[in-house]
Design brief:
Helix content of chain A: 40-55%
Number of domains of chain A: 3
CATH topology of the largest domain in chain B: Butyryl-CoA Dehydrogenase, subunit A, domain 3
CATH class of the largest domain in chain A: Mainly Alpha
Number of helices of chain B: 11
Order of helices and strands of chain B: HHHHHHEEEEEEEEHEEHHHH
Distance between the termini of chain B: 28 Å
Largest sheet of chain B: 4 strands, mixed
CATH superfamily of the largest domain in chain B: Butyryl-CoA Dehydrogenase, subunit A, domain 3
Number of domains of chain B: 3
CATH architecture of the largest domain in chain B: Up-down Bundle
Order of helices and strands of chain A: HHHHHHEEEEEEEEHHEEHHHH
Oligomer: heterotetramer
Strand content of chain A: 15-25%
Number of helices of chain A: 12
Number of strands of chain B: 10
Largest interface: B-C, 40 and 45 residues
Structural class of chain A: alpha+beta
CATH class of the largest domain in chain B: Mainly Alpha
Helix content of chain B: 40-55%
Strand order of the largest sheet of chain B: 1-4-5-8
Distance between the termini of chain A: 32 Å
CATH topology of the largest domain in chain A: Butyryl-CoA Dehydrogenase, subunit A, domain 3
Shape of chain A: globular
Radius of gyration of chain B: 21 Å
Chain lengths: 386, 370, 386, 370
């Protein structure tokens, strides 16, 4: 048993840190620090191209596809260090979501066509899974794809599409057979966002931001060659993808960074002659969440260790998602509480409102990506066998 | 012990609710908040005509004198409708301040115009320094001839941009004085802010602002100002209760109609128990709103302060639980600007933070009982 | 609107206080203070006889049955003052449970025979509802009563019978028709505990106490005249009774008394130069529970006020039960935490162990009397209409 | 980073578990706790034969030296079986104290008999005064000729009635000394107590107890004693984890078999989510038990203390949640002495209170990070 990173891993961590110190552009970092989302698209692409130039564009991919060959632990170290250094998150939809599906189930042609462009940030991908009537119950999705010669003709609507307003491509689950059971009859399609008949409408969120979209498909024609795998077998690929979506699901790096910020900010607010960090009540809450984060960090490493042995993510990831998002929300609550009444003044694009904006926006964490209620169902059914 | 409302009180509630139902639905509210002012002068005028702006003015001063229960019920309705007008700021806080601290002359000068809505006043008290001690202000008033010169900075005064009259608290030696200052007086600068609950406010900079001797209300107002703030807090609690009541109703309704896995999500036991928990928070909050209302004029300062702080603590926690769970149970839809739920959620968040946060009031309460 | 008691009610409260000061025997009070349960039977009976002599033996009964004619508010004041004065609780099974059923559904003969003896503490009653297989799902009860001439012959087992080892009489739900739906086919019987074939086996609880029993019925013969109301209609009477069991369900008096004790005890423990009552963390928790109790006290009065108007207890009582028991358990937790490591030494009959014994024993509050999960179901179904 | 156990460690766990499964089932435990001693000398002897009492004795001193991971695994099993023997008291705490503080002579004198189980030692440190400062003891040792006289009172020393040797901490001027005192020494009085988790303990009154110069272990032991206490705490955490693991398993099993309303209660979503929450507490607790184990020998005192305090806080909270919910989900049966669940519940309660409560450790942790 050993909780510490090996000498090799520590050397790797130092290498990542040095790289970040040298290569992360100051203006990008500064926007992350200030919670300024105005340049998300440019910053994400710029940073991805820097990573790509270093050969780190797709850490988790196998070497034959241009990945790094890093161990799970190294991937974890890389992601955590990036977050701690206030680097932008890599866009998951391409690198972590559609790419593993293509590598496992896509044709060689699809792999050659799409993977290099994902790694190089030439294509921005988004996800077309949820629909207005199909959130937690994804398998009830209704968007139709009817075969017409070498093409599918798509009609329907997707919802809760994250950052699709920037996207070049979307991967979609569509219904190709309405007569079958819900999980059967779904296919997995790759769709060029420039195809005619696609309309993207950004959804304004409660914090004033625009992150998610509704997308309408009106007789959108997609070549059959853009289908991944077999017709009507898309649910299998979707489940495979959901399993892979779980990397870094606990958000350890984010939480460590924001907790560090909370501690340093609270050390500057004075009450009764000492700082709020020293205050037994407020400081005690910080201590509490730090302890829970410490535990989750170890739990996360345990899951990584077990996955490395079993070679597949298991339902344990649901625990990481639940506790990780609870901790992130808790930190954002404390950041807001630290401000007291000052948190009342709000403009979603202002530096002063960072904590409040974060509190509002992060309500999504327990809803999106499989709500925490769904995760608890998964734990009850898959782990506890209830 | 009596938890019923008398006929006048019930009528006040019903008529306010009716007005809001007819004139201030969610669509109209969206329109109002998109205007430059962010609130409706038209609605405000009608409030004046309905008498709602006179409920805290005693009959002797030409008002209605509906008392704290009347204010609670009107505030309930305002919270239910998420209204954006300066009712709490002007018709409760500022009106109480003038009624309780003003001379006959001052009451006569200001109250009639407040009652009709022609005039809007706000109490400018909070500063960066009042966080852990609500009476620790740094704004100073110094004598200058017959009058005063006031310098300081007030934080996030709700509806200040709408007001023509500011009631500014300031240190006068070791006392706290209250001064009526026209918003357009020389040396007054408003820095407009929007609040997280979509209301308009401003930081106010006072740079050597002249005030006549006649502009001062009362003498050392420390005690009286606390009573006014407590009356405002009781009204804020009532408003928050109205918002909690509606956001829970909306959540229950949504859970009945939203189908997943072939059944309404309200049929899932885990969600049912969550909503049962929300209801208990709501009913406990209702009790505390009553307590705040009936104790906010208590002549025993300890009874008054413990009741108000207890109410703010419990209702702040209820607001957080109910608000967060309402968003959660609405799923993605709860995150959007489109549905009412997120606007209630933000109003409840503002409630937690306004007039002393949950933590601050728990400390006040603890101080009293230990 | 008025939160305060009227002058008349305040005068009544003073009368109750004076009575308690004068008439509650010091030795009984002392045992309650010390948490000494060794004389529960004698103390309960002695105190009931004192109340009876004063004419207060059955506060909630109508005057024609020897009750007091007090309003609901007066009854609430009486119970709260008794608890605050460390008086023993009146035995609910006779006065509050079987008596209302007899008054509503019993024959005149049954009323004349049993009610005076209940009021005078001549009979100790207990309840035979739950069975090993029928806890939350009470309607699934199996104990059989077969008609044999003028008698029923009973066979089966009851469980979680509180204080039945002291009892003279038990009221039981029994199955008189096994072919009907679970709720049909149940009858309500009054049974003399001295009848042959009844075996009482006390169940040792986790705190070392004996409060509840298993009771076996082996060919126990009960006259048909001891049936209340109609055969197979017992579920109706049981539901009526469950509604009436709710008086004082919130335990306000107990919580106020124990909170008072917690505050005075915590004022005596010193940490960092001030008392634990003054400590921001521990004292803050006391403040928190006191605030919740304040709210519940008002909520309780609101329910009393509404019931007085509607004349019937509603599902709102479920809220009082849930929040009331949560607060009682919370107070008992704080009493234990106040002791720190001293709470470790345990002997269930020792004065020093009062807080720990209370913590252990009060785990039952959220289980017995309709578990809090069942109460939440009731709220969801009956109030929220989900 | 490695979360696997090596072969020796796995064997230690397996063999301890096997012994307990074969010799110490719940029925046997009921028998043991009803005996006068409240623990089994017979089992103890077999522990000695199995080598379990030597795992904290270095190989150089004739022991096994299984390290903190070995101790964790054996403690896990002890917690799973709710064992009543003085393993933690003698084979962990007292053994570590002698190993780390004893001279070669002292180690040679005492360790062999501890390893076989012939001798039982306990660390008598806690006093009423150590509650908020674990090193604030009031027991005093004063020089008397070549040796010492010790006077004071120790609180609730687990398994003291079983011990023939007490390791008593006492103030020596400004230092803290540790003294080996036979239980039957003149002036030593044991006041036997039973603990809430059904173990035997005693308050110890020391009235001018004579100790030879050779009875003192080390010099100022303040730092070293803290290390020993931390090693004991790590073992206690491991024991608690074993109990948590089992009480959750029992609860899940019960919820599968208990039928109400025609279905197993484990099919109700509200209870499923409760058990999912229990599992998350359990897994977080497992992580912290690992942390406590691997950091309890850390030479950096801050790293050691924060890790141990963090573990105690999180695991104490997990113990409370899991224990309370296990009883709740067992319904009435959870309240009885008859099922295992209530005994696990009480063991977990004792865990919360022992070796510094949750509150006390949160304060220690907070002190370190601020």
């Amino acid at each position: 048993m050993d909780l510490d990173f090996s000498t090799v891993e520590l050397a790797f961590r130092d290498e990542v840190r040095q790289f970040l110190a040298a290569e992360l552009p100051a203006d990008i970092r500064d926007r992350i620090v200030r919670g300024d989302h105005s340049h998300v698209r440019e910053d994400t692409i710029r940073w991805q191209k820097i990573l790509h130039a270093k050969g780190w564009g797709a850490p988790a991919w196998p070497v034959e596809f241009g990945g790094t060959g890093w161990s799970k632990t190294q991937q974890y170290i890389f992601e955590t260090e990036c977050a701690l250094a206030d680097a932008p998150a890599q866009l998951a939809f391409g690198i972590k979501m559609v790419a593993p599906v293509l590598m496992r189930y896509g044709s060689t042609e699809q792999q050659n066509r799409f993977l290099p462009r994902i790694r190089a940030a030439d294509d921005w991908w988004c996800q077309g899974y949820s629909e207005p009537g199909s959130g937690s119950d994804l398998a009830s999705l209704k968007m139709k794809a009817e075969r017409d010669g070498d093409e599918y003709v798509l009609n329907g609507q997707k919802a809760w599409n994250t950052l699709g307003h920037f996207a070049d491509w979307i991967f979609c689950l569509v219904r190709t057979d309405s007569s079958a059971k819900p999980q059967k009859g779904i296919s997995f399609l790759l769709i060029d966002m420039k195809t005619s008949g696609i309309t993207v409408r950004p959804t304004k969120l409660l914090d004033g931001s625009f992150e998610v979209n509704e997308i309408w498909f009106d007789n959108v024609r997609v070549p059959v060659t853009n289908r991944v795998g077999d017709e009507n077998e898309g649910w299998t690929y979707a489940k495979f993808l959901l399993g892979h979506e779980r990397t870094n699901i606990a958000g350890i790096g984010w939480s460590k960074r924001e907790l560090r910020r909370l501690k340093s900010d609270s050390a500057k607010v004075s009450k009764d002659g000492r700082s709020l960090l020293e205050d037994p009540v407020f400081g005690g809450r910080i201590a509490q969440v730090e302890i829970e984060l410490t535990a989750l960090e170890i739990t996360n490493m345990r899951v990584i260790f077990d996955e490395a042995a079993k070679k597949a993510p298991g339902p344990e990831a649901s625990m990481l998602k639940i506790r990780g998002t609870e901790i992130m929300q808790r930190i954002s609550e404390l950041q807001m509480e630290l401000l007291g009444a000052s948190a009342l003044a709000y403009a979603h694009d202002s530096d002063d409102s960072r904590a409040t904006a974060s509190y509002l926006n992060l309500r999504k964490l327990t809803i999106f990506g499989g709500s925490n209620e769904i995760q608890r169902n998964i734990i009850a059914h898959m782990i506890l066998k209830l | 012990m009596d938890f019923s409302f008398n006929d006048e009180q019930q009528m006040l509630l019903d008529s306010t609710r009716r007005f809001i139902a007819e004139r201030y639905d969610f669509e109209h509210r969206n329109h109002v908040r998109a205007t430059a002012d962010g609130w409706s002068r038209d609605v405000w005028k009608q409030f004046g005509e309905l008498g709602l702006l006179a409920i805290n003015i005693p009959e002797a001063d030409g008002g209605i004198g509906a008392g704290s229960v009347g204010t609670m019920l009107v505030s309930n309705a305002m919270g239910e409708g998420l209204l954006l007008e300066p009712f709490l700021s002007s018709a409760v806080l500022a009106t109480h301040a003038i009624v309780q601290l003003g001379s006959a002359q001052q009451r006569g000068d200001w109250l009639p115009a407040l009652a009709t809505g022609e005039s809007i006043a706000v109490l400018a008290h909070d500063e960066a320094s009042t966080r852990f001690d609500v009476m620790h202000i740094e704004t100073q008033a110094v004598r200058s001839g017959d009058g005063w010169r006031i310098t300081g900075r007030k934080s996030l005064v709700y509806h200040a941009p709408a007001a023509n009259l500011l009631l500014v608290s300031a240190r006068v030696d070791k006392e706290i004085g209250l001064f009526a200052v026209p918003t357009d007086a020389a040396g007054v600068t408003l820095l407009p802010r929007t609040t997280v609950d979509e209301q308009r406010a401003a930081d106010i900079v006072l740079d050597n602002v002249a005030a006549a001797a006649s502009a001062r209300l009362g003498e050392d107002v420390r005690e009286a100002l606390q009573v006014v703030l407590d009356q405002g807090l009781a009204a804020l609690c009532a408003e928050a209760f109205g918002a909690m009541d509606r956001i829970l109703a909306a959540t229950i309704e949504y859970s009945r109609s939203r189908v997943q896995f072939g059944v309404p999500i309200g049929s899932f036991q885990a969600l049912q128990h969550r909503m049962a928990e929300m209801l208990m928070h709501l009913e406990q909050a209702r009790s505390m709103s009553y307590l705040a209302t009936l104790r906010c004029t208590d002549t025993d300062p300890v009874a008054r302060r413990t009741a108000l702080s207890a109410a703010k603590v419990l209702m702040g926690q209820a607001a957080r639980y109910i608000g967060q769970q309402a968003v959660q149970l609405h799923g993605g839809m709860g995150m959007t600007d489109e549905l009412e739920v997120s606007h209630y959620f933000k109003r409840l968040l503002a409630f937690e933070l306004r007039c002393g946060t949950t933590d601050e009031h728990l400390a006040v309460y603890h101080q009293q009982i230990r």
